Amino acid sequence: MNALYNLSIFFYSILIRLSAPFNIKAGQISKGRKLTFADLQSKIKHDKPIAWVHCASLGEFEQGRPIIEAIRKQHPEYRILLTFFSPSGYEIRKNYDLADYICYLPADTKKNAERLIELVRPEVVFFVKYEFWFHYINELKKRNIPLYLVSAIFRENQLFFKNTLWGKWYRKMLFSFEQFFVQDDQSVRLLHGVGIKNVTKAGDTRFDRVAEIARNGKNIPLVEKLKGNSLLVVAGSTWKPDEELLIQYIHSHPETKFVIAPHETKKANVERLISLLKTPVICYTEATEESVMNKQVLIVDTIGILSSIYKYADLAYIGGGFGVGIHNTLEAAIFGMPIVFGPNYLKFNEATSMVKLGIAFPVTDSTSLNLIFDQLLSDNQKRNWIARECTGFTNHNLGATQIILNKVFNR
């Protein structure tokens, strides 16, 4: 099985290199991986112990970030290495100032794992949520370097729990982790069922992150002026299928104001969105407090402010639910409002929990979106009840970061 795994990594790496001239993300990851060792070699210092945090992409970074920031605050004696698998994480967070070193994770070969770990010599390692790289895990185990999986979720259909050759091979990796910090009871049950007992139900560290955002949220005067005395819907991280439904509602409800923050903020995509809107619209980067007041729609064509914009919303729509899965619902939930999203949300524990509590609402088409938007925007009493329930839900789930740090650094 080792040989098959190595072969799959080899062919994947070849595919990345061959695609690099034609695919932006493939080019970024190919170039970034080539620079990792030289970059670390020139910068790494061993005057302090190193904590290594690895995230697949931007979403996992939001779960790893509270751990990084808590280590920085509570254990300043550590330097921090942050690695990414995906360009969508690295390219956005490559200048994150609370990590000492930030780079791509080289392909998971035995040689790369040995070289990276020898170079970094981490004292403690955190992999976030879904990251299972055989050679890195194996090399850390051989060197007795403690490895922790944080904000993890396990499901019955994962390879670890199948009695196939691949399943049994993957399952062996689980025994190399020092501790699993999981989000839910099902994950605890599944791990216990295959003999893994070093499991702590800690929850999702993103709750701690969004609570910090809410405490330090920026005021956005342009959004205040847009909203005025009107109801405001904030649609975050939208894709084309989300926008097609929203635009139908926007056109039929000119009295309601909208902020749309598309997932892709490149000029061509923003111009496409503007072309579809037959109503007064302006981009954030072009708006003034005066010019925004007579517009119905504000398009956020920049990054880094969406989480602060949610606090002005009477209702939030979270994009991605008509694709591979919804984006971050907690950024909106922390401010206490109804949340609407597309049908592909079942892999997200926080979303399924909110649906069961009656504070989030999945839609499947324009008819269901129109119905739920009308119901929620016309019922102040219901929105106030949802706000209270959201606050209770988010407060109940705080504290995962501290549970993890207490266990790791007081072992």
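The record above closes out task 2.4. Task 2.5 opens with a second protein, given below.
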Amino acid sequence: MSDGGQFKPGRSGNPAGKAKGTRNRTTIALEEILQGEAETITRKAIELAQNGDTVALRMCLDRLMPVRKDRPITFTLPKIETTADLTKATQALLQGVADGEITPSEAAELSKLVDAHVRAIEAVDFAGRLAALEQGAGGRR
């Protein structure tokens, strides 16, 4: 700590961080208030929803069927075995969006996977070329 009672820049007052499993005080307080009342509150929310309260209805539906953040898609990409195959994959993604087969955001996510795969191919290719160069040099430096 510095003289003014403040921690020095870059130095945490708790280097170990928050203990695993530590819960927020507000969350604990709310759980204590609601303990034993959850069933009554849930029943009331269902009643309100059944009587046409759209906010209660939305809340109940969100609990019964939460919005999916992701979904499986069926989309065929050409094989990507070399970096030269990248253009075939991106062309397929563009065509899939143009045809309405996949959404632009789905294509963007698939593009990230294609990019990661191409980087893996490049890394393997680089390692192979480096090994060949080292072997060709015969250990000479």
